[in-house]
Amino acid sequence: MNDTYAFIEAEKTTHGVAFLCRLLKVARSSFYAWLAAQKTRAARRAADAALTHEITVIHLASRGTYGVPRVHAELRRLGRSVNHKRVARLMREHGIQGAHRRRRRSLTRPDKKARPAPDLIGRDFHADSPGTKLVGDITFLPTAEGWLYLACWLDLATREVVGYAMADHHRAELVVDALNMAHGRADLKPGCVIHSDRGSEYTSDQFRDHIRELGLRQSCGRTGSCFDNAAAESFWALLKEEIGTRIWPDRATARADVFNFVETFYNRRRLRKHKTFGYLSPAETRQRHQHTLAA
């Protein structure tokens, strides 16, 4: 119908509105109502174009990873009061999509002789305050030089990566180095739970002794159950999708990209919906917890 009204508007000086409306079997009142709303439509199109530009900038700043919920949350943080359905429509119309996660292979190789620690998490991936529950795991990144192994520890209260280490092996030293970083920068509380799978790195005497030296408590999920360490597994899926690169030319480049992703984007800028505080980055969530405790 809009095309019909647009045709009448274009030809009205030649044939007259009354004749064209009678010929095309439309009411003159409907045509004039459409004509009166033309300025409103033009203003709406201009507003949609401006909002699309803002959405594109936010999407690019997120490394092309944000979908509708996080783009909408970022717009709200910037003071833009806009309906999430409108954001979804504009992103759909312009082909703007968030990242989708891939499945990954597991590195877990249980030590059948080791006696694993009890599961102190029980799939409860929530913590009331930072420094009380950490989850960790190991993954690998492909490079032209061979695998780069990455171990991380996440604080469940903030989902901040508080400790990580990279090497060309995945022996126990790798997870110990990552834990030392977490202990040095995350203000871990005495008795903090350190949860992982039952991989040989985590059931080794070296790792267990180090946990005891630091005054922490070890926790292990069951063998073959990814759900017992779902928070760490989820982070690996997120990192491998959002970091963008599929294979690196060398380990040094992969190390630099991981550092940049964790320190400049994930911890400080990437929004995550907290059930109490709303959409915040992990660092902002930690600051909010600290402010709440101080108050």
Q: Please, could you describe this protein's structure?
A:
The chain is an alpha/beta fold. The chain has 2 domains: 1-94, no CATH class; 133-294, Nucleotidyltransferase, domain 5 (2-Layer Sandwich), CATH 3.30.420.10. The chain contains 11 helices and 7 strands. It has helices at 2-15, 17-24, 28-36, 38-61, 68-77, 84-93, 172-185, 205-213, 230-242, 251-266, 282-294, and strands spanning 133-143, 146-155, 160-167, 193-196, 217-220, 272-274, 278-280. The strands form 2 sheets. Strands 3-2-1-4-5 form a 5-stranded mixed sheet, with helices on both faces. A two-stranded antiparallel ribbon has the order 6-7. It starts with a helix and ends with a helix.
The share of residues in helices is 40-55%
Q: How many β-strand runs?
A: 7
Q: What percentage of the residues does DSSP assign to strands (E)?
A: 5-15%
**Second CATH tier, the architecture of the largest domain:** 2-Layer Sandwich
SSE succession: HHHHHHEEEHEHEHHEEH
The poorly predicted ranges are none
| CATH class value of the largest domain | Alpha Beta
Radius of gyration: 27 Å
Find the structural class using helix and strand composition.
Answer: alpha/beta
Q: Largest beta sheet: what is the strand line-up?
A: 3-2-1-4-5
Distance between the termini: 61 Å
Q: Shape, please? A: elongated
Which topology of the largest domain does CATH recognise? Answer: Nucleotidyltransferase, domain 5
What can be said about the biggest beta sheet? Answer: 5 strands, mixed
Mean pLDDT: 85
Give the helix tally. 11
The CATH fourth-level homologous superfamily of the largest domain: Ribonuclease H-like superfamily/Ribonuclease H
